[in-house]
């Protein structure tokens, strides 16, 4: 760098002295040309070997080194001819230097084309090509008028003019290539280096423009100044590349947008018209035809470029419009299901209430046990289920009504010009539409929804209507999963009381307000107690005994059923263990503990049961886990029951016959006993169909080698009939109500068998 700078300083000094008429030897400046380019070549070699530079970058700088060597050779031959044009061998030197200069520039052109650039669309390449043509045509026109034409007019040797034309055109083409790289990004090559190289090519074009001036004997010193400046610029570019490769943080992104070049057509067109006006209104009109032809060519390319710009602007505006529409849709619709979202749903409902569009009914829809689907099969399957449910909900409403997804597994619908009756009809269609299994991820899944219905009344506000629908959905869940319920006045008080009961239940678990009673399970043939069923009770400090039908649903809805069930399990195991120790062989053979579906899905449920057995010392064979058919809804619950069965714990299917999946569960659930639901017992002596169902259940149990237990036996006639049908075990008020542990212990006596003998 220092040597190249010194050569430039020496060249400037020589040119100034020569212009002032001081006799200075030309040989001194001629010798500096190869020295300057030699130093520049050394700098480019160092840049090509810079640490951290990509292979494509190294290849570029190696090519540039070759370019510098060729240009150095050509300039070393061209400089004597330009400084001493009267020498007899000047023309020969020019003819020899031209191929070297052109070849060097072509090597640079090739290196530029091989640089990787980011992907561009055909339209972007078209714009770039038109911009290049504008630069090429405009620069060529000015070069012709300012440089080449004066040389021709001076009757310079035609070969010299031809050589200068070839070198100039090559510089222009390479300038376009440099512009392409600067505009599109130079990949592994420093963007600042490419900017400096672009300045070098502009300097070459400037040298051509200054050719008429340089040929004047007084100003021939300008030629070495231009040569040394070009050499210094290339060395500077190589130095910048080396610094950038060593310290990448110094490089800033050089990918420029198209916006800075959007004014190029205006500058080119204005400059061309200015040149045309200068020639037209000047003294010398000899070049008017050539300038006019060039102006027409430039104007034509500029016009095409502007048409392309107008087309691009139109496409951009259309893209912006579509993007705005997409953003508006995303702001008001759910991305997964395509339904309107909560915000849009609220706006539509508020608008309907404000403008009095007849009666408005709102349906709030909550998918039951959807979390189990997500936890068991994954969120991808859950998303497929939501999409299918959304489609079925849309099929259940009229064309003008609106279905929305509020979030998660919560949906809603706005029914215009509707009443409670219409809302109930839609809820019924929703229930029927969801009755068919949903296919998702290769699984056939049963999806149910609880639907709350609320119709607007005169003067109802948005919050009031939504609260009523929410209360109605709460009522639907109280009635059981997959049901619907319409809001009725007065629900608020009952729902609030129910919620307060759930809050008090949490305190009751810790305050010792809960206790367990045990209902006997007997052999029907002799009335001997063979087991018990643990039933939790709540002694409220103010209300007294709270019925299980009130607080068990509250526990399930609040999630308290998990700690409540854990407490019942441990207490029942401890009591059964105490009976085994105090009563010996007279103790009940087993204790049954009811387990909710929520408990089965807890990851540590099996470990909890094992810990309860270990801590109380109870043999697993004396524990029966009772589950309802609706609790065993997926593979996770079945797996938990199988793990318990592997521990030799017995499994009883409680309330058998009340769900649609009963028969299928017998193939997948590891049950050891069936407990016939009391609804098939209460009128078994008077309704033949109930007797037929009871008979079918006991025959099936016998075929599968399962115990059959009849629940809800209240009369001797029922007991006799069930025993004759083949039932070995039963429970009900005939054999005793649920009892405290001490009361049950006194009942474990042979006297109870007399009841069995009387029923015979």
TrEMBL record:
The chain crosses the membrane at residues 29-48, 60-78, 90-113, 125-148, 160-182, 194-214, 220-243, 264-282. PROSITE patterns: EAL (PS50883), GGDEF (PS50887). InterPro entries: Biofilm_reg_signaling, EAL_dom, EAL_sf, GGDEF_dom, Nucleotide_cyclase, Rev_trsase/Diguanyl_cyclase. It holds the Pfam family GGDEF. The keyword Transmembrane applies. Keywords: Membrane, Transmembrane, Transmembrane helix. Residues 498-752 form the EAL domain. CDD domains: EAL, GGDEF. Residues 358-489 form the GGDEF domain. The keyword Transcription does not apply. SMART domains: EAL (SM00052), GGDEF (SM00267). NCBIfam families: GGDEF (TIGR00254). This is Diguanylate cyclase (GGDEF) domain-containing protein. It comes from Virgisporangium aurantiacum.
